[in-house]
């Protein structure tokens, strides 16, 4: 007869194809360490409460430690016919220590067990992602500190708009990534909640100490409603949502890298180790890493939509649909880690072409606003100053000139308030330094930003309990 743990109710063997369809061992085997950790804590709590004997608990814990060691060493392989990681470990434990192993599942269901496992797993992986983001932020800070005076055009609508610096631009992405880390901290708080003791959906008649078991697992709270405890996957969706935001930020940055290393921009050059060539065009140096990140972003978005759609119609409490949460969140997680580990060293190794950035800033009338501000400070209303400057720009375009190359006589054709000091006022370096407001591109302000980023990062690392 069947060796399924739930076989008592059934008089027929499960169809093999149905068994394969039903099984999750091929993807939830990565939860083995968390499953064992949870089971060790559960055995300790059962013993403390006198539900099983202390000697039985010790046998169970010893057996679980041995199973974990054998899995890690490769001596014990996962059984592909097992229904899931929980059944596999329990069956292996029973095989090794006999009848005592069957006591482990007292006052527990796979419903609260799997909810615990995924929480413990994501808590560990949240820190892995946060550490990778922290590495990228530090890399951006290091690069930015070298380029606080590297002038480049800032853009709106992908049109040259106003002068900024490369450090200012890079620091904008650091701010995005800091928000991502802060979101991870928030998700971590809501993930660190123990569902064990909720059992299948209605708790148990055994005198459990749920708080004690949560403390053994370093979880800060217990779920307050057994129905919600086994059916909640908000934390999985929230984590995947944060992963989607991380990918969105990486994708935006990737798009700029792709533009910047093109011949049309030439603001940067990627290191040969982080670019590829063409099979037919020998001159090509392609930014494949950034293109792949841009493409993989849609994949992570799909994982998020998968989870949202899976959960949207489920009645309380647990439903088998929820088995689909793991492949989606695992895929999103693996994708984000892969992208971060490729992106950070690429940024560290890229070369920034200061001269090309400066030349692009000089050619797009990005100091036109400063020219209008010059007139405003001479007493002319901004709207009128704006109109006059627009006429000057139009004149420059028709005559192949820039604001810097006009003569004072040409300026005074448009308004007599122009004087020799206009040339210093519209100088790109002056324009950048004059934007000396908090958050602006002036070198000293960007230096403040970088310092602030490092301080915020250090605080987040402490809160997340990562290095």
Helices and strands in order:
Layout: H1 16-22, H2 25-28, H3 32-48, H4 54-73, H5 85-97, H6 110-145, E1 151-156, E2 159-165, H7 166-191, E3 193-194, H8 210-216, E4 221-222, H9 226-231, H10 234-260, E5 268-269, H11 288-311, H12 325-349, E6 351-352, H13 354-362, H14 368-377, H15 382-399, H16 408-412, H17 422-425, H18 428-434, H19 443-464
Parallel strand pairs: 3-4
Antiparallel strand pairs: 1-2, 5-6
Helix pairs in contact: 3-4, 3-6, 3-8, 4-5, 6-7, 6-12, 6-19, 7-10, 7-19, 10-11, 10-12, 11-12, 14-15
How would you characterize this protein structure?
By secondary structure, this protein is mainly α. The protein has 3 domains: 7-106, Fumarase/aspartase (N-terminal domain) (Fumarase C, Chain B, domain 1, Orthogonal Bundle), CATH 1.10.275; 111-359, Fumarase C, Chain A, domain 2 (Up-down Bundle); 364-448, Orthogonal Bundle (Ribonucleotide Reductase Protein R1, domain 1). 61% of the residues lie in helices and 4% in strands. The chain contains 19 helices and 6 strands. It is elongated and about 100 Å long. It starts with 15 loop residues before the first helix and ends with a helix.
Summarize the entry for a quick read:
With 467 residues, this protein is mostly helical. The protein has helices spanning 16-22, 25-28, 32-48, 54-73, 85-97, 110-145, 166-191, 210-216, 226-231, 234-260, 288-311, 325-349, 354-362, 368-377, 382-399, 408-412, 422-425, 428-434, 443-464, and strands at residues 151-156, 159-165, 193-194, 221-222, 268-269, 351-352. The chain has 19 helices and 6 strands.
């Amino acid at each position: 007869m069947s060796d399924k743990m739930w076989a008592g109710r059934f008089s027929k063997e499960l169809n093999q194809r149905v068994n394969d369809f039903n099984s999750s061992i091929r993807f939830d085997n990565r939860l083995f360490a968390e499953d064992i950790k949870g089971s060790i804590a559960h055995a300790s709590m059962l013993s403390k409460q006198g539900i099983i004997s202390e000697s039985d608990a010790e046998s169970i814990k010893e057996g679980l430690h041995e199973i974990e060691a054998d899995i890690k060493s490769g001596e014990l392989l996962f059984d592909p016919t097992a229904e899931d990681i929980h059944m596999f470990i329990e069956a292996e434990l029973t095989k090794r220590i006999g009848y005592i192993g069957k006591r482990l599942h007292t006052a527990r269901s796979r419903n609260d067990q799997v909810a615990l496992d995924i929480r413990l797993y994501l808590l560990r992986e949240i820190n892995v992602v946060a550490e990778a983001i922290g590495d990228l932020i530090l890399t951006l800070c290091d690069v930015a500190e070298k380029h606080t005076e590297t002038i480049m055009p800032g853009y709106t609508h992908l049109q040259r708009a106003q002068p900024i610096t490369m450090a200012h631009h890079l620091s904008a992405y650091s701010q995005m990534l800091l928000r991502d880390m802060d979101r991870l901290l928030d998700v971590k708080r809501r993930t660190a909640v123990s569902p064990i003791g909720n059992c299948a959906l209605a708790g148990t008649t055994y005198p459990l100490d749920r708080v004690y078991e949560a403390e053994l697992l370093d979880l800060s709270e217990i779920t307050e409603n057994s129905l919600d405890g086994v059916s909640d996957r908000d934390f999985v969706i929230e984590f995947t949502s944060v992963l989607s935001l991380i990918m969105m930020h990486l994708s935006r940055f990737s798009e700029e890298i792709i533009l910047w290393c093109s011949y049309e921009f030439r603001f940067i050059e990627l290191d040969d180790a982080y670019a590829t060539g063409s099979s037919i065009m020998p001159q090509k140096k392609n930014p494949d890493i950034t293109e792949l990140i841009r493409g993989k972003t849609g994949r992570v978005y799909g994982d998020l939509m998968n989870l949202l759609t899976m959960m949207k119609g489920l009645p309380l409490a647990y439903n088998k649909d929820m088995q689909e949460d793991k492949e989606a969140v695992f895929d999103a997680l693996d994708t984000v880690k892969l992208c971060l580990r490729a992106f950070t060293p690429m940024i560290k190794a890229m070369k920034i072409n200061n001269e090309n950035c400066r030349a692009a800033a000089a050619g797009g009338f990005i100091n036109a606003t400063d020219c209008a501000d010059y007139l405003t400070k001479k007493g002319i209303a901004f709207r009128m100053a704006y109109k006059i400057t627009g006429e000057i720009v139009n004149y420059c375009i028709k005559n192949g000139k820039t604001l810097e190359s006009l003569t004072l006589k040409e300026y005074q054709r448009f308004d007599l308030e122009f004087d020799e000091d206009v040339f210093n006022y519209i100088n790109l370096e002056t324009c950048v330094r004059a934007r000396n407001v908090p958050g602006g591109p002036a070198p000293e302000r960007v230096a403040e930003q970088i310092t602030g980023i490092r301080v915020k990062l250090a605080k987040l690392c402490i809160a997340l309990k990562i290095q």
